Amino acid sequence: MSDRIRKVDYFYIKAADKPGEGASVLKALRDEGINLLAFSGFPEGPKAQIDFIPENPIAFEAAAKRVGLKLSKKKSGFLIQGEDRPGAVANIMGKLSDAKINITAVDAVCAGEGRYGAVLWVKPKDVAAAARALGAT
């Protein structure tokens, strides 16, 4: 089975960097029926940045508005899913290296049962070239 690489929309918010903030946001989105393909949070100065890759970006934007989240503009990244094996992420990163595209950030995890997943970001000016290099859908 080959990797599935798809270009996805993502959004972020800035939130207080304190216990329970992420849980509160996720609960509000859950209560709105929002399914996330990926979620990431990290400190940024005195605040935290919380990134969301929603299954349905249009529904996500509407729900975020209803629960009072101040979203960034829509941005693009890549969601990668595949069969876990040695070098899976190295192969993906190698394709971008060969295309002379710098990776802004990447998060990858073993998903269990022989699967892995990753989220990868490049600069906005490189999204189209990265999509071509990766064969993204």
Quick gist of this model?
The protein is an alpha+beta fold and 137 residues long. Helix content is 29%, strand content 42%. It has helices at residues 21-31, 57-66, 88-98, 127-134; strands at residues 4-16, 36-44, 47-54, 75-83, 103-112, 115-122.
Q: What report would you give on this structure?
A:
There is one protein chain. The chain has 137 residues and is α+β, with helices and mostly antiparallel strands. Helix content is 29%, strand content 42%. It is built from four helices and six strands. It has helices spanning 21-31, 57-66, 88-98, 127-134; strands spanning 4-16, 36-44, 47-54, 75-83, 103-112, 115-122. The chain has a six-stranded antiparallel β-sheet with strand order 2-3-1-4-6-5. The longest helix is centred in the first third of the chain and has 11 residues, at 21-31. The two termini are 16 Å apart. The mean pLDDT is 96.
Name some characteristics of this structure.
single chain; 137 residues; alpha+beta; 6-stranded antiparallel beta sheet; 29% helix; 42% strand
Q: For the terminal residues, how far apart are their CA atoms?
A: 16 Å
Main β-sheet, in a few words? 6 strands, antiparallel
Order of strands across the widest beta sheet? 2-3-1-4-6-5
Q: Estimate the mean pLDDT confidence.
A: 96
Number of helices: 4
Radius of gyration from the alpha-carbon trace, in angstroms:
16 Å
Uncertain spans, ≥5 residues at pLDDT below 50?
none
Assess the beta-strand content as a share of residues.
Answer: 35-45%
Shape: globular
Structural class: alpha+beta
Count of individual beta strands: 6
Tell me roughly what share of residues is in helical segments. 25-40%
